[in-house]
Amino acid sequence: MKKYIASHEYVFFLLFVFAQLIGSVLKINTKLDGTIHLTKYMLLGIFLMSAILAYPLSTLSKKWLDHFLDQKKTDNKKLFTCKGIYMWLYLWLGISAMWIPYLLAYYPGIFAYDIPSQWNQYFGVSGYNTQHPIIHTILMGWEIEVGQRIFGNYNKGVAFYCLLQLLVLSGVISYAICYVNRLTSSRRIIIFVILYFALFPVWPILGISTTKDTYFAVFYFMSFMALLNCCFSGIKTNQIISAVFFLTAGLLFRNNAVHGVVLAALSLVLLMMIKQYPKREGLYFVTIFFFCVFISAGLFGQLKRITNASEVTIAESLSIPCQQIARVYSVKKNELTEDDQAVIFQYIPEEKLVNYRWQLSDPVKAGLNTRLVESDWKRFIALWLEFGKRYPGEYLEATLCNTLPLWYVWDESMVSVKHCYIEYSFFDFTSGKVVKNSQFPGLEKILTNTCTKGYILEFPIVSLLFAPALYVWIIIAIGFILAKYKQYKYLVLPSFLLGYVATLMAGPCILPRYCINFIICVPVLMICTGNILRRERDEGINYG
Q1: For residue 242, which phi and psi values (nearest 5 degrees)?
Q2: Residue 66: pLDDT above 80?
Q3: Phi, psi dihedrals of residue 529, rounded to the nearest 5°
Q4: Using CA atoms, how far apart are residues 350 and 289, in angstroms rounded to an integer?
């Protein structure tokens, strides 16, 4: 029994159940206006309950894994037998055809709230800044301008940009399906993957969104595939070049992604230190990660110099500290002395603190006195640590509430943040240059009501596919499985994905479009993990 409790299955389900029970308490807490809190006794009770529930769940999972590994190799004929390039072309054309109605329904595209700033920067209304990736601002503006020159107006220019992006995303997803087809002979798996990618509305809606997330997801996924090929086929020059190119490009399309790559590299160093990771492969991957970080930093610096871009406020990076202080003020206001409140108001005005929202830091951090913080970092850190020492429970709750969608699978706060699951708004700020003109208003209404407004989350099982936390826990589970079967060199894959996930926890909120880059990797990772565990028996399969 003692040995079993220390098993990988038990530890995973202990963490999973504990997180879900904590999430349930926090969800009740927010609905009851903060009347229930995570006391140390409640945490102890939740831990004991988790320890009990983890036992049957881990037992069942162990039996399922053993059954999976005991199955004989199937001789099912592949669903696709044509050459790879033709299969990719058929899939690309088919998926693109299925997605284009989304573009027509939201024609000329989803002009979301990030775009006014980027539009003004590119077209000279305002100077460049680093709030949004400079390379995306330039790419978006250039493609829209090219479309305008070719087709005669900016409406068609925006549609041109969205169409190109849609085709790029569908092409990458078609490549993923082709890769899976090489790894498995199961028709059911291939059909499921095709249906998931072709019918899951998140993909085409993001494909026609003008925010930076789609291109970042494309480059991030391709760098993940390059790492996967390095694991399967060995670290070769062409794979290293692919990994460096795609990862460097990805880092330029999202500011916080650099920190995720650094965390992934450090996790590999830690694994090598405890002698559970092959040093040769580990050193290669760590070198690739840090090389990409340095190259992207250099390119970013050049882009800043060329565009004369200004730095944005540090408030974004202080989202969690702002939420923690705001929660202390919101929950413990009656216990705070006048001096305490006066010090807090120096950094965040009272009118901002009363707007505290547990899942979104924007209302509070918008009032942060960044000049005062930057003028005396030690004073601010001392204040933050002092309140954390006095009110650790409120600090913990503020952090957990702000990151709930990453670890609680039944969370719906993504909808309450922007009143929709995926942003579909059209912002009119171009003085009539770009005008919403849906070609299929009926389809737009259906998609808006079912998918973007979050009504789909009301369906218990289907809603799980829309929960970022589900994919995070699948990645964690795969990490445990790889460790259990001593497939250590493949741990670079979950480490790479979880490194980025960790950076999201420091952000102002969790939105689905922030998570799409690792969600797109999960189906491929799951299937590849199955092949990794059965590769000795399935020697005939080409893994590279």
Answers
A1: -60, -45
A2: no
A3: -65, -40
A4: 43
- Lowest model confidence (mean pLDDT) among 32-41, 253-262, 278-287, 318-327: 32-41
Q: Does residue 130 contact residue 255 with C-beta atoms inside 8 Å?
A: yes
In the chain, what is the greatest distance between 2 CA atoms, to the nearest angstrom?
Answer: 75
Instruction: Give yes or no for a contact between 105 and 439, defined as CB atoms under 8 angstroms apart.
Output: yes
User: Can you tell me which residue has the tokens 């595209």?
Assistant: 109
Residue 344 clears pLDDT 60, i.e. is over it = yes
Is residue 499 scored above 60 in pLDDT? yes
Residue 360 to residue 365: CA distance in whole angstroms:
10
Q: Are 46 and 21 in contact (CB under 8 A)?
A: yes
Q: Is the link from the previous residue into 108 a cis peptide, with omega within 30 of 0?
A: yes
Burial 485-508, CB ≥16 within 10 A → b, else e: eeebbbbbbbbbbbbbbebbebbb
DSSP state of 488: G
pLDDT reported for residue 474: 96
Average pLDDT, the chain: 87
**Tens digits of per-residue pLDDT, 471-497?**
999 999 999 999 888 888 899 999 999
310's CB contacts (< 8 A; 6+ apart) are 127, 128, 129, 130
Residues 6+ apart with CB under 8 A from 527: 180, 183, 184, 189, 193
Q: What are phi and psi of 80, to 5 degrees?
A: -115, 130
